């Protein structure tokens, strides 16, 4: 991080709600533990070695039910903050409790306003306890695209038995994104680093600063599209080698910051053995090929599929990250 970036971060301090009253827990907690994988040697199909995701009540649910004085004070401070006046639709008591628990566990020191809002989730700026900015993604329990979520969940071994319980689906989806980010990182794919997960709240690296945000690939003019295409192709191959398919990859789910291409929104990523894996992979390849074809690159979706699937799925994720800088005409990218 440059001195300029630190100065920018310091300027944001006044816009965040101080949450020190929640206290901290000096002991390591489960919030930043991988809900992810069991040993690869105990499964028959590489890519499916996922531990069952637990959607039972968390400590945040218990905090919300108790509603002790300390939690109520914390909740009132966030509720009264100017940046949350129009954001209350996302924050039920259990969501406030999830943020409270993340503060107690030492993952959040100050909470800021929204970076982006969507039908399924809002993303907020926050200050981590190591003085670095982080992003907090909060999924809505009553997500409007609930049925679309199910198309990604059905057939995934991590979600067997969830049924039609909306709360269980959303909590599992949040843990799924955390686990997918962890796996992608291990495979050498540049993604926002996952930090912690609690109930329907996911804490992760904030790529760029709020004032100089990372730009979506669709928003920038790429000076070296061939290099960008090669990076995306390699990322897709690495994901597949680690047993994952993004499932919604396009120029809108990749961002550029300081010459670095970053893949985002891995909540819907599926294992290579998902019953719809082939369909999701083909759609990803068609989207990527179409975008780079518009950039003047000769692409072929079928050839891209062949390249991506060339290695056998390997859950170890031992590949290293490619060293390619994607150049744009926007200095803030």
From TrEMBL:
<feature type="compositionally biased region" description="Basic and acidic residues">
    <location>
        <begin position="1"/>
        <end position="19"/>
    </location>
</feature>
<dbReference type="InterPro" id="IPR051272">
    <property type="entry name" value="RIO-type_Ser/Thr_kinase"/>
</dbReference>
<feature type="compositionally biased region" description="Polar residues">
    <location>
        <begin position="317"/>
        <end position="333"/>
    </location>
</feature>
<keyword id="KW-0418">Kinase</keyword>
<keyword id="KW-0808">Transferase</keyword>
<keyword id="KW-0460">Magnesium</keyword>
<dbReference type="InterPro" id="IPR054876">
    <property type="entry name" value="RIO1_kinase"/>
</dbReference>
<keyword id="KW-0547">Nucleotide-binding</keyword>
<dbReference type="InterPro" id="IPR008266">
    <property type="entry name" value="Tyr_kinase_AS"/>
</dbReference>
<dbReference type="InterPro" id="IPR000719">
    <property type="entry name" value="Prot_kinase_dom"/>
</dbReference>
<dbReference type="InterPro" id="IPR018935">
    <property type="entry name" value="RIO_kinase_CS"/>
</dbReference>
<dbReference type="GO" id="GO:0005524">
    <property type="term" value="F:ATP binding"/>
</dbReference>
<keyword id="KW-0479">Metal-binding</keyword>
<feature type="region of interest" description="Disordered">
    <location>
        <begin position="1"/>
        <end position="47"/>
    </location>
</feature>
<feature type="domain" description="Protein kinase">
    <location>
        <begin position="109"/>
        <end position="333"/>
    </location>
</feature>
<dbReference type="GO" id="GO:0046872">
    <property type="term" value="F:metal ion binding"/>
</dbReference>
<dbReference type="InterPro" id="IPR018934">
    <property type="entry name" value="RIO_dom"/>
</dbReference>
<dbReference type="InterPro" id="IPR000687">
    <property type="entry name" value="RIO_kinase"/>
</dbReference>
<dbReference type="Pfam" id="PF01163">
    <property type="entry name" value="RIO1"/>
</dbReference>
<feature type="compositionally biased region" description="Polar residues">
    <location>
        <begin position="23"/>
        <end position="32"/>
    </location>
</feature>
<comment type="similarity">
    <text>Belongs to the protein kinase superfamily. RIO-type Ser/Thr kinase family.</text>
</comment>
<keyword id="KW-0723">Serine/threonine-protein kinase</keyword>
<dbReference type="GO" id="GO:0004674">
    <property type="term" value="F:protein serine/threonine kinase activity"/>
</dbReference>
<dbReference type="InterPro" id="IPR011009">
    <property type="entry name" value="Kinase-like_dom_sf"/>
</dbReference>
<feature type="region of interest" description="Disordered">
    <location>
        <begin position="306"/>
        <end position="333"/>
    </location>
</feature>
<protein>
    <recommendedName>
        <fullName>non-specific serine/threonine protein kinase</fullName>
        <ecNumber>2.7.11.1</ecNumber>
    </recommendedName>
</protein>
<keyword id="KW-0067">ATP-binding</keyword>
């Amino acid at each position: 991080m440059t001195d300029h970036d630190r100065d920018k971060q310091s300027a944001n301090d006044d816009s965040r709600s101080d949450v020190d009253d929640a206290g901290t827990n000096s002991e390591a907690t489960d919030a930043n533990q991988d809900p992810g994988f069991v040993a690869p040697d105990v499964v028959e199909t590489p890519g499916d070695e996922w531990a069952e995701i637990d959607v039972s009540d968390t400590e945040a649910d218990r905090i919300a039910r108790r509603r002790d004085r300390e939690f109520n004070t914390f909740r009132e401070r966030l509720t009264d903050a100017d940046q949350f006046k129009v954001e209350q639709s996302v924050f039920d008591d259990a969501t406030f409790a999830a943020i409270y628990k993340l503060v107690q566990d030492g993952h959040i020191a100050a909470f800021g306003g929204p970076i982006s809002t969507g039908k399924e989730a809002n993303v907020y700026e926050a200050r981590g306890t190591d003085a670095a900015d982080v992003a907090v993604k909060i999924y809505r329990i009553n997500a409007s695209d609930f049925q679309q979520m199910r198309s990604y969940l059905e057939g995934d071994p991590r979600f067997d038995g969830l049924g039609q319980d909306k709360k269980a689906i959303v909590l599992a989806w949040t843990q799924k994104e955390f686990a997918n980010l962890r796996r992608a990182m291990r495979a050498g794919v540049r993604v926002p680093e996952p930090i912690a997960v609690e109930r329907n709240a996911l804490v992760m690296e904030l790529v760029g600063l709020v004032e100089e945000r990372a730009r979506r690939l669709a928003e920038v003019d790429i000076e070296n599209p061939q290099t960008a295409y090669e990076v995306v192709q390699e990322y897709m191959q690495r994901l597949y080698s680690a047993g994952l398919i993004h499932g919604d990859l396009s120029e809108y789910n990749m961002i550029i910051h300081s010459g670095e291409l970053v893949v985002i929104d891995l909540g819907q990523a599926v294992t290579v053995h998902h019953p719809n894996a082939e369909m999701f992979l083909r759609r990803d390849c068609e989207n990527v090929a179409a975008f780079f074809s518009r950039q003047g690159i000769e692409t072929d979706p079928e050839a891209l599929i062949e390249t991506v699937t060339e290695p056998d799925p390997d859950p170890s994720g031992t590949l290293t990250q490619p060293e390619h800088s994607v150049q744009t005409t926007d200095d803030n990218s």
